Amino acid sequence: MEEKFKQKPSDVIKVVLFGPESTGKTTLSRQLAEHYNSVWVPEYAREYLQDKWNNEQKTCEPHDLLPIAEGQMKLENELAQKATDVLICDTDLLETKVYSEAYYLGYCDPQLEKYALENTYDLYLLTYIDVPWEKDDLRDKPKERERMFMYFKDTLERYNKNFVILKGDKQTRLETAVKYINQLLEK
Description:
By secondary structure, the chain is of the alpha/beta class. It is built from 7 helices and 5 strands; from the N terminus they run βαβααβααβαβα. The protein has helices at 25-35, 44-56, 65-80, 93-104, 110-118, 145-158, 170-186; strands at residues 13-18, 40-41, 86-89, 123-127, 163-166.
């Protein structure tokens, strides 16, 4: 079972969009993949949870976290083989760990936590909460954005992850992200 959460080796630079819900991660993932003529790994939880909502009218529950993590890593491992120089990940297992701790359980399943910390990425792009909240079937905590942003930031600092905070409009965020990704590509 644990192998399902493991990241397969890859030579591409891996960049993760990381942060609270409704902060522009998917939009920027698409923009960056287009800019680098590469692929991006969508957030598996969106599809999984939208299907759950459509079928059961229920949002995410604690027992959904491991299937979401498994689906996310399956997608990432598949798409890493198709990426050019950069793989853009709309999320990662560390984000699932944050949601497990802060939203659902107050802790993280040991299997999930192990791989959330072992899987490696070259850069985290932490999206700030300065974009308007967009309601949908799955987003449910508009008043939690500041608290969650701080939780995400604290997590990156606690685990000594390489990250930059993205603020501003779409163009400013894109330019900032490209600047930091280009620095990795030049190494």
